[in-house]
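Annex B, item 7. Sequence and structure tokens for protein A, then protein B.
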Amino acid sequence: MATHTLSVLVQNRPGVLARVAMLFARRGFNIDSLAVGETEDPSVSRMTMIVSVEGKPLEQVIKQLQKLINVLRVVELAVDDKIERELALIKVGVGAGKRAEVLEIAEIFRAKVVDVDADALTLEITGAPDKVSALEHLVAPYGITELARTGRIALGRGGAGLKPPNLRPVPLAETEAS
């Protein structure tokens, strides 16, 4: 199955995430990664969704997404025309004896040490998903105690940005205005 990255601009309102996720669930699609947050406009949120589906069904889901009332814009980001990043916190259970080896690996990946105690150290890494996975793989033999990954966020390359359409306020009916 092919992996697709969708960038979805939605109104920043309660329940929108649930409606979008339910649309995918009804169609039997799993969302591999989902990250949601406010944009430069606090009334608009961006959802970055990674889904694994084959061609035509994805087109149908995109059309259905566009019909949801709080969805402002939906774009599939091309594989070679996007920037993706992910954040992970990795707690490695190492004592003083092996700590230098883990710190050396962390330095190669430009990971930050954000917590240290006698039995563990916690690394923070930001980067492309394959970079995060590579660090995770290399420190796994030392014993990963806990792991948290944010999911991917992505933007299209270049100067153009994804913006919501200009919306005109809906005039109140005369009976509602009185």
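Protein B:
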Amino acid sequence: MKAAESYALAQKIIKKCDGSRDPEIIYQCLGIELEDTFDLANLKGMYSSADRHRTIYLHKRLTGYLRRFVLMHEICHDQIPEHRKRARRMPYKEIQFFGGANQSEREANSVAAHVLIDDEKMVNLIMEGNTAQAIAAELYVPEDLLLIAIEDYHKLHPDFIVRLPRSGRGNYLKDYDIWE
């Protein structure tokens, strides 16, 4: 999935949910069930579409910006047609979700970045000279998600040049503790 496709899907999700960028509103708007009372060990979240019953499972101890991001990431798996089809064929296979930097995880992260991060706010914060860490804190997202958003923004707007401290990692969530 290219940056333009991720951006278009994110805009479609936002429009479908009356302009909301809040994953707590979006999952309900899209008719996805949320189960957040489980201890999923080291797993932060997963998406299933068993018997066409669309469900997101979140670890019961996820809170704050990490819960917000993981929920949006799982919503994106539901909204990316290929991911939903895969989840129907293998409904509980996604237990390996954050184990590697595979393409489907990068795609879900990219769409999630475009939903959660308002481009105008992001660009303004960059132009003010803020660090990536400060911008991520201001936008209430993990730093790697911000870096993915900036990389995608540059692909969509090649004239926008910004020096990134590093590339956004696709498998960064494995490094985050649930209890941070």
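Comment on protein B: The beta strands are 33-38, 45-48, 55-59.
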